[in-house]
């Protein structure tokens, strides 16, 4: 990306287009020479007919594809002659436009802009991160460059973002296929709907009934006129689920994280976060007035070092981790983290987004898994993953939760979660508790997939949950494999840099309780096929048909 930015800066500085045009004299109608480059201020004309500096000439030329010629009253500014051809610089005259109608000038400017932005960008050379830091006087420059890159990526079939879904989020989905212009069925391997609850009949019933009774919106912010009995009922249930004393519900998980962290971490405090945490945690830290530092992923020694070096500089300290990490599905070493936290008098916050419904007794998350009830200071969770709806929450002590209700800006400055979503979450918790077979089926699927992927010879991440990543380690290869897998009817996601470090690019599968054996086998078959096509699987690796059956 450096190249692109550099090029942009250069181009903007000189505003020169490498445009080769025939330039004529208006007085004689004769060819003066050929432009080498051109800007709104002037141009360099390659010619052997060197005019003296100071000579005034009226020049005429046509921009490519334009019928109306541009006329420019000009001054010869400098000359270059008798140059050695090997140097690659032809002789000619440097021209400055000294009189040009505004309309002509605008034409040139427009052409300059257009040609800059329609220059092809080879998306193979860039990642999404490259388009963040482009600074230019025109605020929209970054948008135009990114437009070109996405266009190129789409043309190459690498753009699997924002595919249109035409059916509910189940094990199989109908997806709009841009290539054929028709819907097609795909196996959904990219959904957070771990227990399949988005279409659970009990939840749909509860949601419908609540809409009938309460309508579709809360109508206000929670501190004003937007708190309903369903909210407080849900908060009590979520507190119980996570073994905390109280909870507060936010409209999304993202808002729960940013609101909680920015409310607690003030000027003299520090958040110390695992370097693999979700963007919402990082954004919460950035929004806060305090400091934040990262420690190496699940490296408690490094966490200790960061705490040690922060010890005398800050007052309050908050360690933030994910119970189950969204990238690889691995679990945080919570018992050690809690011990270290106690040693340094730090509080611990666990984002259990990918653990609730998946890990622990009755799907109560990592705190239950480690039997650490009451030992974690703050538990964050979403209603949008295994609970199948939408919303987020923070569970903690009654005092901390109360504080957040008044100081978490994404809570009280935003409208409340609509009551029907509170009802859907309440129903989801009930379904989760009463139908343990969903969680059991999910684990059966996880075991089957992990064993078979390993048997096939894929390098998989350290998954301890419904998220399994396959390490590919090269961005272009990742894009190609992802494209092929989508063509094979497997809807999964690719994680390029900066979602993961360079060289660690991954494909990611997310399993659901509602995947049937045929879905898993078809996915393995496609992965094997594509893995072999791209040489990711060697000759010695197993074949899925002979794979272990869980
Ligand atoms: N935390 C983590 C770890 C997440 O992965 C996500 C989103 N997937 C969120 C928070 C945000 O949750 P939500 O989608 O409910 O806003």
Structural write-up:
The protein is α+β, with helices and mostly antiparallel strands. The protein has 3 domains: 4-155, Thrombin, subunit H, CATH 2.40.10; 199-433, Type I PLP-dependent aspartate aminotransferase-like (Major domain) (Aspartate Aminotransferase, domain 2, 3-Layer(aba) Sandwich), CATH 3.40.640.10; 437-533, Aspartate Aminotransferase, domain 1. The protein has 16 helices and 19 strands. The strands form 4 sheets. The chain has a 7-stranded mixed β-sheet with strand order 9-15-14-13-12-10-11, sandwiched between helices. The two termini are 46 Å apart. The model is unreliable at 546-550 (pLDDT under 50). The structure holds 4'-deoxy-4'-aminopyridoxal-5'-phosphate. Residues 252-254, 257, 278, 280, 322, 326, 351, 353, 382, 384, 392 line the site of 4'-deoxy-4'-aminopyridoxal-5'-phosphate (PMP).
> What's the total number of strands?
19
Strand order of the largest sheet: 9-15-14-13-12-10-11
The largest sheet, given as strand count, sense and whether it forms a barrel, is: 7 strands, mixed
Distance between the termini: 46 Å
- What's the pLDDT, averaged over the residues? 91
Examine the secondary-structure arrangement and name the CATH architecture of the largest domain: 3-Layer(aba) Sandwich
Structural class: alpha+beta
Q: What general form does the structure show?
A: elongated
